[in-house]
Each structure stands twice: as C-alpha cells, then as structure tokens.
Amino acid sequence: MASGKTITVAIMDAPYESANSTTALRIVQSALQKGHNVTVFAYEGAVNLTMKAQAPHPNPVKGTNVEQEAHPTTKDWVSSLFKLAKDKGAKLDWVNCGLCVDERGAGDWVEGPRRGGPKDFLDASNASNATLVIPTK
Amino acid sequence: MAKILNIVETAYRGTLEEQDDTVLWLTHMLKNAGADISVLLRANAVNYAVKGQDASGLQFGDAKMTHPPEIDKDVEKMIEKGVSIYIVEEDAQERGLTDDDLLRGLRRIRRQGIPQLIDEHEQVWHW
Fold first, then answer.
1. Three-class HEC string of chain A
2. Residue pairs spanning A and B at CB distance below 8 A
3. Nearest-CB residue to A137 (from B10, B30, B34)
4. pLDDT for A1 beyond 90
5. B35 touches chain A (CB under 8 A)
6. Which chain A residues contact residue B16 at CB under 8 A?
7. Which of A66, A90, B4, B45 has a Cα at 20 to 30 A from B13?
C-alpha cells in the first residue's frame, strides 16, 4: 500500500564498477517495498545502469556457460524495481540525465526510465521527504 | 524552496573528459533553475579555489583538447551569481594553500564551524 511519502536518490556510478550501484538499488527496493514513491536521478555513469544492450556472459574461470552463470544485469534489476513499484502501488520515477546519456551513447534503455536533467532533480528533491546522493568517489 | 548545501570532497573526478567538475556544473545548473544552493569545498576539493589553474595541452594523437576545464573560473562565476562558496581553512592549510593562492569572494570556515553550517541548510548533499 502506498505511503504517500517520496524519497529522491541521486546516483553517479557506472554499473559493474563499485558497490554503490547495488547499495542504491537496495535502498530503492526497500523504499518501494514500504510503499514509498522513489525518484532516481541517474547522473553521469549511472545512466548506463538501464542500457538495454546489456547482456549476461559466461564465466571462463569457473567454466560456466551463460545459463549456468545466470549473470545478473543492472537493466534487469531496474526493470524488476519498476515491477515492484507497480505491485506496491508506488511510483518509481527514474530520470536519466540527458546530457550524460548523449556523451555516452546510452540512449537505448529498458522500459520505464525517462530522459531529464538537473531541473528534474531539483524539483524532485523539493517535493520529497528526503534526498540522498550517492556519488562516485 | 529548501536551502541546499553541496559538500564537494572528491576533486578532479573526470574533469578533463567532462571539461567541468560534474558537481560544480550540477550546482550551476540548479542555481540557474532557481535553487537556493551553497557549496562547501573540503578535502582535496579545496584546490578548486586555487587561482590560475591551467589544464590545457592535452592531446592524444591528432585529437587536441581545445576547451579544457577552467575550474577556478567556474567557481568565480558561481560566486558572481550569488552562490556562497565555503572552503575549509584547515584543509587548505594542510595542502599548503595560502590566501594569495585562493580566489577572492570565498567564505572561509573552520572545521568546527561545519556542524552549524549544516544546521543552516535543509538539504545537505555530500559528493
């Protein structure tokens, strides 16, 4: 059941580079599970989290093929978060920074996110009960 | 409109590729969008307030960088626009920076003053 509360989370890290991405997605998930609305502002490398062309790979060290490895992709995780939001009656508004998308050629993404900019982050922050930024270090 | 304090700690994060510091750029954009926003430079980011930075000359093969970042000028422009730029004095001193090295118009703050500065803002974002 929706709580009527909203948090905004700004993230910067590219996928598969640091624990920040997973941590951010865990926070988003926890908020959605409690019925909170979440706005994500994906800045810089974080716009790659939702790229549609991501693909799982085998693991030659372990000798596993693609199916056995079942390698996760962040685009699938984000898609699952959109489904979770729907199931919980909450809203997930995922904003990919447009200029960051352009410089990375990352404009083809999974269903759900939208293109936006810093003004969207400011508006979301002003309308939220709390805002968290998770920067690249 | 909430008062926002952007604390910048990580410095020179992709500044050559971006031709900017990404957080100072974001701050500038948010100011242009009407935000009531201030900046606190701490740790290595105090170097953003040093005058006369020159990142020109980068070239890979025939590809020359013709518009390098000018972080000090970006800071100056924000001060001109009314963004308060705070700098932690001890962090500057520890890096050998004197008043002569630094831009004019900065607001100097001691470490012990940071909690009060945070108290004066509704939103604090630490980058």
1. CCCCCEEEEEECCCCCCCHHHHHHHHHHHHHHHCCCEEEEEECHHHHHHHECCCCCCCECCCCECHHHHCCCCHHHHHHHHHHHHHHHCCCEEEEEEHHHHHHHCCCCECCCCEEECHHHHHHHHHHCCEEEEECCC
2. 37
3. B10
4. no
5. yes
6. none
7. B4
**Which pLDDT belongs to residue A22?**
93
Maximum alpha-carbon separation in chain A: 50
Q: How close A136 gets to chain B, by Cα (Å)?
A: 8
List CB contacts of B118: < 8 A, sequence separation 6 or more: B5, B124
The per-residue pLDDT for A100 is: 97
Q: What is the ipTM of this complex?
A: 0.82
pLDDT of residue A51: 98
Q: What is the pLDDT of residues A72-90, one digit of tens each?
A: 999 999 999 999 999 999 9
The residue of chain B nearest to residue A9, with distances taken between CA atoms, is B125
User: What is the mean predicted confidence (pLDDT) over B72-83?
Assistant: 97
Q: Say how far apart CA A89 and CA B31 lie, in whole Å.
A: 34
Contact assignment for B30 to A118 by CB distance below 8 Å: yes
